[in-house]
């Protein structure tokens, strides 16, 4: 979803969109442009709630403000429906690259579930190839427009289905053709990562990195399974890890907390948390702490030294961009440029890239923030 809004950092007026940023948690089927949905739906003779792009965008945002992950996920029925052809997948991928580039993203990982895009005859491999073609077209167009951006695919298996190993093998087959990691997604409660232990065992044997959706619609047991069964190097959201942190007492200047074994492990091992502030609010992931962004445990986790990263999750459903998410966090917690740089360094260090490439990203971040 395009976002031409100017986001200025309060105090010094820095243009947040111009800052170099890393996007680790961005769903391909959650970032479509409303106008693209309308046009692709027309080609496939599908009904849409509105043929006005602005009204359709408003519809997605309203439907997503449900407070329930299950209800939130229903909006994807429409986006996935228009992503069932090679042309549709390639177009959506290309536009996602361009939208991220225009927002100042210098490295992004686009995650999506190929098994959900086979209704019109594509094979799993053909679907992955179509997305990669679109990404490469987007990279070429971004370069021609003066942007410097890199993109990797995160191939995702649906946690409620039984195709985990098949999708893991698909991801590994394409590791030299754009796929950088593996994920499981979908309804979290009742579907622990342990259901896909065979897939995760296979991925570990291939030294292939995984991130796992956990700690969004389910609690500590889901996170524990993501780490033990999924060998997760990052946690998709992971916001409910804060349930394992007890605030013992507070005074005017400080909070005194104790960490459980699980949260201690995540912090000490520097497992990255792919936090998505607006989405976490929409899905009720932070309901235990409140219903406003200032209630999000993001700041608690940050102050305690967890490797927090900032993400959009689904740009269309949250009517957001990475710049907007940073602006919202600044408004809620008073963050400044130095905090933003920490978040981007955290994300660069956690990217599913060789260490040389991660070090290069960090240099680009440092240079970009020095120039801000």
From TrEMBL:
Top-level enzyme category: hydrolase
One Pfam family cited in the UniProt record for this chain: A_deaminase
GO terms for biological process, alphabetical: adenosine catabolic process; hypoxanthine salvage; inosine biosynthetic process; nucleotide metabolic process
Name under which the protein is recorded: adenosine deaminase
Adenosine deaminase domain ranges (all copies): 20-366
GO function terms (MF aspect): adenosine deaminase activity; metal ion binding
Key words, A-Z: Hydrolase, Metal-binding, Nucleotide metabolism, Zinc
EC number: 3.5.4.4
The family this protein is said to belong to: Belongs to the metallo-dependent hydrolases superfamily. Adenosine and AMP deaminases family.
Source domain of life: Bacteria
A GO cellular-component term linked to this record: cytosol
InterPro entries attached to this UniProt entry: A_deaminase_dom, Ado/ade_deaminase, Metal_Hydrolase
Cofactor(s) required, per the database record: Zn(2+)
């Amino acid at each position: 979803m395009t976002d031409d809004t100017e986001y200025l950092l309060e105090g010094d007026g820095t243009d947040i969109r111009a800052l170099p940023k890393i996007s680790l948690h961005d769903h391909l089927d959650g970032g479509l442009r409303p106008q693209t949905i309308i046009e692709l739906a027309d080609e496939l003779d599908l009904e849409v709630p509105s043929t006005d792009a602005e009204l359709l965008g408003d519809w997605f945002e309203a439907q997503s403000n449900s407070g329930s992950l299950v209800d939130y996920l229903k909006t994807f029925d429409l986006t996935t429906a228009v992503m069932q052809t090679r042309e549709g997948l390639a177009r959506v991928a290309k536009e996602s690259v361009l939208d991220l580039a225009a927002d100042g993203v210098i490295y992004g990982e686009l995650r999506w579930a190929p098994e959900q895009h086979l209704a019109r005859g594509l094979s799993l491999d053909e679907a992955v190839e179509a997305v990669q073609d679109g990404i490469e077209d987007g990279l070429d167009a971004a370069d021609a427009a003066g942007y410097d951006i890199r993109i990797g695919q995160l191939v995702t298996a649906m946690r409620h289905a039984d195709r985990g190993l098949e999708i893991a093998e698909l991801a590994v087959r394409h590791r030299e053709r754009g796929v950088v990691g593996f994920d499981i997604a979908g309804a979290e409660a009742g579907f622990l990562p342990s259901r896909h232990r065979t897939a995760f065992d296979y991925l570990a044997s291939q030294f292939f990195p995984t991130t796992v959706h956990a700690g969004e619609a389910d609690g500590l047991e889901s996170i524990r399974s993501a780490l033990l069964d999924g060998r997760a190097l990052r946690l998709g959201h992971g916001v409910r890890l804060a349930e394992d942190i007890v605030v013992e007492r507070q005074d005017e200047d400080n909070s005194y907390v104790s960490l459980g074994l699980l949260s201690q492990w995540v912090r000490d091992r520097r497992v990255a948390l792919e936090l998505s502030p607006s989405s976490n609010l929409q899905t009720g992931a932070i309901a235990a702490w409140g219903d406003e962004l200032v209630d999000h445990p993001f700041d608690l986790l940050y102050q305690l030294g967890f490797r927090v990263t900032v993400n959009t999750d689904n740009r269309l459903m949250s009517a957001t961009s990475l710049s907007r998410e940073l602006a919202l966090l600044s408004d809620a917690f008073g963050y400044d440029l130095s905090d933003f740089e920490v978040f981007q360094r955290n994300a660069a260090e956690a990217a599913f890239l060789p260490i040389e490439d991660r070090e290069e990203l960090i240099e680009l971040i440092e240079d970009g923030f020095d120039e801000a």
